[in-house]
Each structure stands twice: as structure tokens, then as C-alpha cells.
# Entry
Amino acid sequence: MAEDRCSTGVPSVDRLLGGGLETDSLTEIYGEGGSGKTLFCLGVAHRIAREGRWVFYIDTEGLSVDRLGAIAGAELDRILGRFLLSAPKDLEEQGRAIATACALAREGKRPVGLIVVDSGTAYYRLSLSGPDEDDARQALSVAVADLVATALRAQVPVLLTNQVWRSVREGTLEPLGGSFLNHAAKTILRFERLPGPRRRVVLVKHRSLPEGSAEFRITSTGLEGP
Ligand code: ATP
Ligand code: MG
# Structure
């Protein structure tokens, strides 16, 4: 595997990504509920923590420790010992958690192998079409810019999950966050549900690879390639 790639632990996805996640940029994953975004993030985080590197995990879903247990098994405590977990309750708290994670990663006192923001847009979504929409967009932009700069300067891969909205006119599921997030993410993956535990991952955008797709399966202990 190339040194500038971080294996995802799912061989089919690594192949699609030319070896794994880029270590100097933000990767966005969008897709409908149940498409496997959280399980994917937990799987990558588990790998990094097992290697002894730190994972900064910003979790707006509030469920991930239990689910990490299904992946980590008896090693859960050891894995959690390498996690800096925060569970913000609104967009403002999320912004502070991201700023803290980025500052610590750039400081470089401990080896940080990954920053995860799951979901990056859940709180932002709540403000859409309301009086706070502009402020929320600004807050999200500041946080994403901080993540992008940190990935580049500290060489830490960033994984940010994004929710979707349905375009009635096009009949498609589109990511939230508009063109700003679309530009900020150097790799964009779309997760799609297939029958049963099967999922498709589509490479929508990459700096140096063509578009393509792969499949994986959800199992009781995480994700595996076909
Ligand atoms: P959301 O947008 O709601 O956060 P998500 O994309 O993060 O969704 P995950 O929570 O990662 O989705 O995936 C949950 C999916 O995994 C569900 O569809 C669930 O049915 C499936 N799943 C969970 N455990 C298993 C298992 N043991 N075997 C097969 N499928 C499973
Ligand atoms: Mg999720």
C-alpha cells in the first residue's frame, strides 16, 4: 500500500481508492440511513487504534461505543484507550469539538491517525430553512476548513459523513452541504443500499482516480469485501 494511503480494512474499497484513504485530505461519505457510513467509520477507527495511534471521534449519533464493541470484542477497552470521543449536542458544540481535535492533531504531541466526524451535517440539517440557516452554514464552513487544513498540515486523514436529501426533480439522493463541502472534500464516496447486507460504494470524486464502484457486506462484526 502506498505510504500516503490509510487502509480502510475493506479490500474492495481499498482497491477502489488506490490503496486506501488519502492521508492529507478530507474524505466525505454520503448515503441514506442504514447504508453503512457509521460502520465504515468505526471499522477504520478500530484499525488505527489497534495500531496504537489516536483516533479523534466526534459522534453526533450517540451510539458508536456500543457498536465499536461489536467490532473490537474483548479488545474494546484497549481500543477505547486510544479514542478521544466527543458527543456534541448541537452545532456550536460540534464546532468546538472539531476545533479541539484539530488543534491537538496539529500540536503533534501524540500520534493521531484519524479524525472522524459522524454525522458532520446532522445538526446543520436541523437549521435549514430556519432563521439560523446562514449562521449554521458559516459554522459548518469554518469547521470543515479547519479539518481540511489539519489533514494537510498534520497528515491526518479526515472522514466526514454526510446525510442526503431527495431531489424530487432529478429523482436522486443528494448530499447536504452544497458546493462548499463538495470542493472541500478531495474524495467523495456515495454508499448505496443493495438487498440484504450488501452495500455499494461509488467513488464520486477523487483527485487522481477515475469514478468507479465496489461492493461490501455488513456482518455482525463490521464490514467485509465480497
Ligand atoms: P445513518 O445515516 O442512519 O446514520 P448509516 O449509513 O450510518 O446510517 P450504519 O448505521 O452504518 O448506517 O449501518 C446500519 C445498517 O447495518 C443497517 O441497515 C442494519 O440493518 C445493518 N446491520 C447492522 N448489523 C448487521 C448485521 N449483523 N448483519 C447485517 N446487517 C447489519
Ligand atoms: Mg450513521
